[in-house]
Amino acid sequence: MIDKRSFYIGGQWVESRDGREHVVIDPSTEEGAVTIMLAGPQDVDAAVDAAKAALPAWAETDPQERRALAGRILEQYGRRERDFAEAISREMGAPIDFALAEQAPSFSWHLENFLTAFDRIEWLRPLGPRGSMIAMEPIGVVGLITPWNWPANQIALKVIPALLAGCTSVLKPSEQAPLSAVVVAEMLHDAGCPPGVFNLIQGDGAGAGTRLSTHPDVEMISFTGSTRAGRAITVAAADTFKRVTLELGGKGANLVFADADERAVERGVRHVMENTGQSCNAPARMLVERPVYEQAVEIARGVAEATTVGPASEPGPHIGPVVNARQWEHVQGLIQKGIEEGARLVAGGPGRPEHLNRGFFVRPTVFADVVPGMSIEKIEIFGPVLSMLPFDTEEEALRIANDTDYGLTNYIQTQDEARRHRLARRLKSGMVEMNGQSRGRGAPFGGTKASGRAREGGAWGIEEFLEVKSISGW
């Protein structure tokens, strides 16, 4: 078992002051994988104190000095990519080939995009002809709380823009994903990050997360995770008037019209199954125009049945387990609920795949004839489960898509350009992707409603960590 009980505070690895031991379970084997310490209040305070002490000097650095540090971190990533991927695979169950191809590289991809955006930021800009100026200044000490499902991705979307903005930070990753955060701390240390500018503690939400959220010296909390936890953080932070930015859950709708391209359904199903369904932007509801609905159901069945499942350590294009026992039980409960509420089970179903007798593995599952309001249509499942619904008109599809508490990503599949444009403007979500085209480099990631309203990535992601100061008589 790997032992990672230390925290990175003030530029060095230190022992916990008042934490408690925690064992991370390998989701492929259900055996202990990593031992960490969950930070106690004294540990959190020590990390915040280090960040506070480092803030004045770091906030006043030349922006190009901060950019140079980010460039050196990118160089360190090139040396540590394999370590990063192996850490992610072990801690949260991403198959190693997927971790190498998608999970780990998301760190460098976002870092490169931040560097491009950074070069366009005007830190001091004129406003009008009367000598008024706008200054963009770091908000201060920030608490960064990241999830387990895309650990490299979410750490990059918080740590790098905070650093570039001139903020100092305390990172608390999910207690399910400690190893990848340790690799990040090592990369920043080896890149020459000044002591206290970046600090890492391990901990759970109820303990370390709450302490960060209520700490009077923390000016901002940037959180990615469940909607339930985001609500709790917002309440906890209210007394200290922190800025709180939230990137939360989703229940994306994928609108497939009869004129969609021939790969549209397959593409949508594969997207849901990717990362074992553990992506907040997964198109988990597929709405299909009725003339092609039964054909789409059969395609979805075939794709799901062809999706293989296996341990994270094995090479290949399979999907891995869900992250832990609690998540496995949540997914299983909703699959059973779908059956009980009358949806048509097309592929998969309850239980593990037949060839696996341990590990938190889920059968790739497709439900057809789902009715709006069913549990599997409303609740974020966060597993490899697709819900399919027929529709007759564009207005009906729009109504079903928008009838959700969430508003992260929606998807449109049609060759009708005017229809795409109409729907893109009327869908209530922070992001819309059409015909399999990814959003551009540096595009902001974030949602509306219960999906939170953060905007992470590119220039928007850096500006989340900046205060706007208006100055007259310049």
Automatic annotation (TrEMBL):
Top-level taxon of origin: Bacteria
InterPro entries linked to this entry: Ald_DH/histidinol_DH, Ald_DH_C, Ald_DH_N, Aldehyde_DH_dom
Residue span(s) of domain Aldehyde dehydrogenase: 13-471
Region entry Disordered, spans: 434-454
Keyword Oxidoreductase attributed: yes
GO MF terms, alphabetically ordered: oxidoreductase activity, acting on the aldehyde or oxo group of donors, NAD or NADP as acceptor
UniProt-listed Gene3D superfamilies: Aldehyde Dehydrogenase, Chain A, domain 1 (3.40.605.10), Aldehyde Dehydrogenase, Chain A, domain 2 (3.40.309.10)
Pfam families registered for this protein in UniProt: Aldedh (PF00171)
Keyword Oxidoreductase attributed: yes
Keyword terms, alphabetized: Oxidoreductase
Family: Belongs to the aldehyde dehydrogenase family.
UniProt name for this protein: Aldehyde dehydrogenase family protein
Organism expressing this protein natively: Rubellimicrobium roseum
